[in-house]
């Protein structure tokens, strides 16, 4: 079942009247007709969704798009470095979240452009996004002029579990005089096996947090501790806070505080959340945990 809806209030109402979406849907995005004003819009129920690239052999209508009416220029020996050529890229947006461009970018060359659509499709990657409530999700191809475009992209939308990595922290307190450790356990599920994980933190709370791709990170920024956890993981204080989940999607980090710390830091509260990362981008963000320093 393919969806080609123009974004408008009337059609949005019609979409929400459709029965609950199936666990799999195919979305075909035309480079000629589906510009931002005429996006392909689908309604998705809650869950973790994966947009998997497909070509005609997998049931899609397209395997790449061309912005110059099929005329290639500047194609050298290195794949993806044409000045004009075939691309596999699109934009996706959920209400209240920023637009995310799903594309391959080469250093010094920008968006990768290939001699053939098949070469472009070979570099396509999936995109993950969470849906909390039934939501309209828009797909389009951005270009300044669409009339001379060829082709498009196709993705299969499939659900996956769990939506977010489980993240637990024990104990809830560490004594600044005795020192100690808080153990942070990550369980992303087997689907996230082999993904990177990064524990981030904040001293300024969890709300409102901020958007990261289509995910919500429940840590406030700007925050000096957030910068420390981002820039200096795997330090003596931040033990194994950057690592790789095992085949079952499990990982463990620790917050380690040496004994005999200044009594002034008693009462300090830290919040942490874990971000999981795949080659295509963010694959999950957990809820926040809490750590209190006590005397």
What descriptors fit this protein?
295 residues; six-stranded mixed β-sheet; disordered N terminus; 2 domains; elongated; Jelly Rolls; mainly beta; Immunoglobulin-like; six-stranded antiparallel β-sheet; 3 helices; 24 strands
Biggest sheet architecture: 6 strands, antiparallel
CATH topology tier name of the largest domain: Jelly Rolls
Protein structure class: mainly beta
Q: In sequence order, what are the helices and strands, one letter per element?
A: HEEEEEEEEEHEEEEEEEEEHEEEEEE
Number of domains: 2
Which value, in Å, is the CA radius of gyration?
A: 22 Å
**What's the CATH architecture of the largest domain?**
Sandwich
Distance between the termini: 61 Å
Low-confidence stretches: 1-22
Number of helices: 3
Q: What is the oligomeric state here?
A: single chain
CATH class of the largest domain: Mainly Beta
Average pLDDT, rounded to a whole number, is 91
Give the helix proportion (percent range): under 10%
> What is the number of strand segments?
24
What share of the residues does DSSP label as strand, in percent? 35-45%
What is the molecular shape? elongated
Short summary:
The protein has 295 residues and is mainly β.
Account of the 3D structure:
The chain is built from three helices and 24 strands. With 295 residues, it is mostly beta strands. The chain folds into two domains: 9-160, Sandwich (Jelly Rolls); 166-294, Immunoglobulins (Immunoglobulin-like), CATH 2.60.40.10. A hairpin with a 6-residue loop joins strand 6 and strand 7 (100-102). The longest helix is centred in the N-terminal third of the chain and has 8 residues, at 9-16. It is elongated. The N and C termini lie far apart (61 Å).
